[in-house]
Specification:
InterPro entries: ATP_PFK, ATP_PFK_prok-type, Phosphofructokinase_CS, Phosphofructokinase_dom, Phosphofructokinase_III, PKF_sf. This protein is 39% helix and 17% strand. The chain is an alpha/beta fold and 342 residues long. A hairpin with a 2-residue loop joins β10 and β11.
């Protein structure tokens, strides 16, 4: 069997470990052949391929980014796109099935292509940890570690100047990175999309910290909404799947806090630093296990499935179930953290 592998959407620590796990398991256990599809769905649409073998994946588990490249291409739009054209491209290359590694947008496209007859197995990739049907996705742990280190560093400069530091992390419409890094970094408030807050409440937390002689440090997820906002702040346009590119909410909140409290406030947007660099040990192991399990699912013909982490076990679930809803921070998890605010 000849299996194509693609990485699509935003890059993420651990992508290369998935590729390595799949190629090594497939070659040893099933004598499968692999081909790399360059630049995500765009490479599948345009027929951009590279050889993948044991030699080409050597040492990949510790390497960040993706050797295949990535893009935010919609496989249903443009010349040579759509399931019929994609199947012709696969047939011409002799590709029997595809392992699609990606997040919400990638897997939604994979589900639609599977419904149209393309043989695909998905692997969940997102630092946001926003995919339902899996407890954790690889890349999340690394992003939290990076954000936590940044919070630790910003705390020292906040203390030195008596400033309020507002640290903005990624997460789109869920607050898992903010929740975990905020708790780990000892943030005085954690602002997430699932829990809109008024600016008055935020300032009350800030003033409480100041009154105790401390410099306030707040962590805010990019998708956070103030209570009066109808939608998340976005000024960067739309991506290929017509979703708003989020970012910049901390830069709106900081001057509001400074004006209302008299405390000098600074915003720091961590941005793509959370996605870069080498994956953590946890993400290397999880990504490798998911890559190996994806090959098993391909050999077993589980088209339209996604490999998933439940507890400490890897199993398969329907891509439809994984993309039907977001994995949101529960009220109980937020209440647990909120005891520490202020």
């Amino acid at each position: 069997m000849k299996i194509g592998i693609l990485t699509s959407g935003g890059d993420c620590p651990g992508l290369n470990a998935v590729i390595r796990g799949a190629v090594l398991k497939g070659g040893r256990a099933y004598d499968s052949e692999f081909v790399g599809i360059r630049n995500g769905w765009r490479g599948l649409v345009q027929g951009e391929f590279m050889k993948l073998d044991r030699h080409s994946v050597r040492g990949l588990s510790r390497q960040g980014g993706t050797i295949l490249g990535s893009s935010r291409t919609n496989p249903f739009e443009g010349e040579n796109a759509g399931p019929e054209n994609i199947q012709k491209t696969m047939d011409a290359e002799g590709i029997d099935a595809i392992i699609a590694i990606g997040g919400e947008g990638t897997l939604t496209a994979a589900r639609r292509l599977t419904d149209a007859g393309i043989k695909i197995v998905g692997v969940p990739k997102t630092i946001d940890n926003d995919l339902a049907a899996t407890d954790y996705s690889f890349g999340f742990n690394t992003a939290v570690e990076i954000a936590t280190e940044a919070i630790d560093r910003l705390r020292t400069t906040a203390d030195s100047h008596g400033r309020c530091m507002i640290v903005e992390v990624m997460g789109r419409h869920v607050g898992w990175i903010a929740l975990h890094s905020g708790m780990a970094g000892g943030a005085h408030a954690i602002l997430i999309p699932e829990q809109p807050q008024t600016i008055e409440q935020i300032c009350a937390w800030v003033e409480s910290v100041r009154d105790r002689g401390r410099a306030p440090v707040l962590v805010v997820s990019e998708g956070f909404l103030l209570a009066e906002m109808g939608e998340a702040h976005s000024h960067k346009g739309l991506d290929a799947f017509n979703r708003p590119r989020l970012g910049g909410i901390s830069e709106l909140i900081a001057p509001m806090v400074e004006e209302r409290t008299g405390i000098e406030a600074r915003a720091t947007v961590l941005g793509h630093t959370q996605r870069g660099g080498a994956p953590s040990a946890y993400d290397r192991v999880l990504a490798t296990r998911l890559g190996m399990a994806a090959v098993d699912a391909v050999v077993e013909g589980k088209w339209g499935s996604m490999v998933s982490l439940k507890g400490t076990d890897i199993n398969t679930v329907s891509i439809a179930d994984a993309t039907m809803d977001l994995n949101r921070v529960t009220q109980a998890r937020y209440d647990e953290a909120a005891v520490l605010f202020g």
